[in-house]
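An example makes the point: we print one protein in full, the chain in one-letter code, the fold tokenised, without further comment:
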Amino acid sequence: MNKSLPVVALAGRPNVGKSTLFNQLTRSRDALVADYPGLTRDRRYGRCQRGEQDFLVVDTGGIEEGGEVVYEGSLRQASLALEEADLIIFLVDGREGLTAADEEIADKLRQRGKPVLLVVNKIDGEDPALAAAEFSVLGFEDPMMIAAAHGRGVTRLVARIEQFLPGEGQGSPPTGESETQDVIRVAIVGRPNVGKSTLVNRILGEERVVVADHPGTTRDAIEIPFARDEQHFILIDTAGIRRRARVDEAVEKFSVIKAIQAMEQAHVVVFLIDCREGITDQDARLLGMVIEAGKALIIGLNKWDGLSLEQKRKVRDQLETRLRFVDFADKMTLSALHGTGVGDLFDHIVPIYRQAQAEFSTAQLTRILQEAVEGYPPPLVRGRRIKLKFAHQGGKNPPVIVIHGNQTERIPSSYRRYLNHTFRDRLGLKGTPVRLEFRSSVNPFAGRFNKLTERQIRKRRRLIKHVKKRR
């Protein structure tokens, strides 16, 4: 059983450097950072291993009052992070100085009755003594001075944090990644506003990420560890990916990059489609990216329960015509908002993951290959028959099958598809793509015939010259 780790929450106004400090403490680049207020909206967890005692760091959205649903959700996320924290780091901006919002946040933090450590950030180029004096009116003793962007003062900050933390094994329940090796990473991917964050909250049974009827609410890829039936998962909520021509803000471009990276690192991708809008060209493009990444795939048809019979028939027809290239994928109807079909999702995720990790013997793969060739022989190429000799496994997640033979580079695409379908059907693989790699055997006599021919030509030329001289 894992020991509990203390939890340290980062709090403060927007754009004071919380995500930058999070990356410094966790020695990662997990948190999206930009000179843009309100960038972080959900809770992000990371593990700090810089000092003598490990602890969890929670990055939160900036605490500010706002009328929009997005800001209200971000404020709730920050409040939840503060409730589970053993220590609160109150981050302020030394460059901008003390503001009325800082004073309001200080009052709210004092009311929670938890230890608070005041940290003044962005002191590079500033007088630390003046900055400390200015923020002393907040009533917190011994503020720390750092420049998170350059890593100045972070080591001293870690040592100071350890003084506040409870002993090892006495902190809050662990929320970070499980130490077990068998962790399934599941990425929720799709266009903006198709219900990805709603599905994440429904799976977890709590408001873990901000949800709003507003495209682009999620800006970063949020990793959420949890366990179900003794199996550990990391659920990744990603930003919606729009067409490149419609991505204007630099922040959104970084969000798209983060979403694509999360998809690349996942074991299983749950691709959500908004059935009310039908299957769009962008859905097909994104599914093509999933296939190129070779990920096990579940297509979630969201908002299904609100459709009429005619709309359901239309979506099924689109699946048959526009998404034939993902015929291997599992397709599920669900409603993230009401929970319909969500409980069955993990009954599909675990078997699909196991199939993507499966191992097959060379004898089994070669036997399937030989039977496929006997049932439908490869075509003739330049009067010669393509010969496929044997097959073996070359990788997992997705399964890679390496086929050896001659003239394999000339195998037509139609025959490649035939072999792909044959292997997938015979191996019982569903939900995961199969990659075929073809390798041609090297003919040791390939160059000798050319050399022999050249020698014969030279000999004939010498003979012709000799005959001409005698005449």
Observations:
- Residues 42 and 414 are 47 Å apart (CA to CA).
- The chain has a mean pLDDT of 78.
- DSSP finds 13 helices and 17 strands in the chain.
